[in-house]
Write a structure and sequence with these properties.
The protein has helices at 34-48, 64-75, 144-161, 179-196, 288-305, 327-336, and strands at 2-6, 9-16, 19-26, 51-59, 82-86, 88-89, 95-104, 109-113, 116-123, 127-135, 169-176, 206-211, 220-229, 235-239, 257-262, 265-274, 313-320, 343-347, 357-366. With 369 residues, it is α+β, with helices and mostly antiparallel strands. The protein has a domain at 235-369: 60s Ribosomal Protein L30, Chain: A. Helix 3 (144-161) crosses helix 4 (179-196) and helix 5 (288-305) packs parallel to helix 6. The chain is globular and about 45 Å long. The model has no long low-confidence stretch (mean pLDDT 95).
Length: 369
Amino acid sequence: MTTSTEDGIDVVFVEHGGIREIFATALPDALEDLASLHHRVRRVLDDSKGEVLELRVFGTIDAFASCTEVLRELYGDIDWPLTYVQGENCFEGELAGIQLHAVAGTAVETIRGDGWPIGRVFEDEFARYCVLGKLQSSDPFRSRERQTQDTLEQMMGGLAAAGMDIHSIARTWFYIDDILGWYQDFNRVRSEIYSTEGLFGRYLPASTGIGGCNPHNTAVVASALGIQAKGEGVTVREIPSPLQCPAIDYGSSFTRAAEVVTPDSRSVFVSGTASIDPEGATAHLGDVDAQVAYTLEIVGAILKSRNMNFLDVTRGNAYFKDPAGAVSLKENAIRHGLPVSRVVVSQNDVCREDLLFELEIDAVREEEA
């Protein structure tokens, strides 16, 4: 893994299986407009000679129209998933940040669903990869439970188009409108589908479920990563959290973290993690600074269990219920060695009323093949 700062953007390059994966995190400068930020991202993409796999944008719903207009000017036809989530800047500005996931050195194919691009497929020497985004129901007037089913069916359809199935999923992200109003119902529908498809007892994907509406007024929008091994030496497995109980113990159908091992790399995907103690209860009620510190301790313990640390992080998201609490992240991040330049910080509700902060990260360690 190599890192650089290009045009003020934190860029991580990961070499594996004869290709190069690119993770760029773009955080706006003070009072920077969204057009300037998108132009900086485009320059990074051009310099790296990469192709977009997915672009995730966290910002105000009001900024969506301007955002898509700028993207069309920069890219022409958008032939890749654009996942736009209301995640307002905890400081100032229309956008909280942009996450670019790209690849160079391999061919890329586009998958479409319901008339828009929902995925891109690429491969390296050891495996095929399917990056899915902007997964959502085509009918925002259906019940929220039915829209959850639609979203998961679209996810499975995208995987099928890539020659994979639901058992190929390593990681999912769900951005849920009014999460506090129906998270239990969301979990119930997800669990029913996972049960029908036989995931329980085999492997539950790592996942984030966080509050956030979207410009299309659907109840949920999702992203996912599918991996299909070409041969021996590629595994996807659950990583337990040394400081927490399994999420399934309190009814959430995901694993705390996942590790993807190939002959020349190890990737760890830490699910959305909050201040939840080993018994499954919320810890440090009402104290955002203590919740941030405890969450970083939990995530750090997961990384340490895999012989990694925060310097191996390729990208991350920090979600605050109250944007005023975001000032507590920097000092805690410095203490733990987390590069804040790779973390988009936004205002989003967490799945419990008393949880004030949630963190997710991806990390990579290159190995000798």
